[in-house]
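Task 17 of the worksheet. Students: predict the tertiary structure of the chain below and write it out as structure tokens. Keep your answer in the requested format; marks are given for formatting as well as content.
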Amino acid sequence: MEAVYRLTRRVARSNASVLLQGETGTGKELIAKAIHRLSPRGSGPFVRVNCGALAENLLESELFGHVRGAFTGAVDNRTGRFEAAHTGTIFLDEIDSTSPKLQVKLLRVLQEHEFERVGDARTVAVDTRVIAASNRDLLAESEAGRFREDLYYRLNVVTIRLPPLAERREDIPALVEHFLRIYAAENSRDTPRIDPAALGALCDYPWPGNVRELQNYIERAVVLAPGDVLTLDLLPEQVAGGKPRRVGRASDPAALAAELVRRGIETAPPDAENLHAEIVDRVERELIAQVMAACDGVRVKAAVRLGINRNTLHKKIKDYGL
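Model answer:
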């Protein structure tokens, strides 16, 4: 991480494009914000776009804007995110999820610093620095034909790799103390101390959700703690050494049916075909809806709480029509 910080400070002084690579939850957006803040553009806007959260046609309009009548629903002219980030920085998260058509347009704005709004022939010039991020290996994606090679090399002026938390376990105690102070202040209480057994469990846990997952668990523990000590029982079952309760993993259809009845949800008749799969789908759909509501629609946070990959959550939300 010290090497990451040194490289962040060094590249911030330039206008070079930066590619941030690392697993979900490793802090790519924090590094992007640091590069912007430490750069000569620090007083300008910092605009974040999650490329994986929008369909292709909506993402194109979001990035480049559109003119009135460009498509159904375009009732007014709209300024895109690239224009909004003029003189500042645009952060393109999950850039690997963009379509080949959109990648061509991104390549042009990187090379020429100009583009056209959707439905418009007029060229717009912008002075915007681009920082992109991906939790996939973009070189491998390029070699597999899923990402344009020329766009990869245009983005890859400087690459910063964010290591997963499992590779930097010595940082866990300091991160725990950091989050304890933050969430104690947010909840108007004194900063609690953490029991050695709980800290040991945190240091031993594999952290598939990385620093974001640690942050969520510390927030949970601070909220639930009855006193000034965070004990092992305040941490999720999987951290304490148990098995996590994951979506769609139950194997007893009778138990699932009973749970649905308890919640007042109609189930298929007992002799229906594929009863187990149908009940699992119904429970899973309701659980995802409840967790999404509890997380105020923030999919990254919901995915960590559910114990599933963010892309998996995107697919399930689409499949269930949530």
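Marker's comment: Strands lie at 18-22, 46-50, 89-93, 114-116, 123-125, 129-134, 158-162, 193-194, 229-230. The domain at 253-319 is CATH 1.10.10.60 (Arc Repressor Mutant, subunit A).
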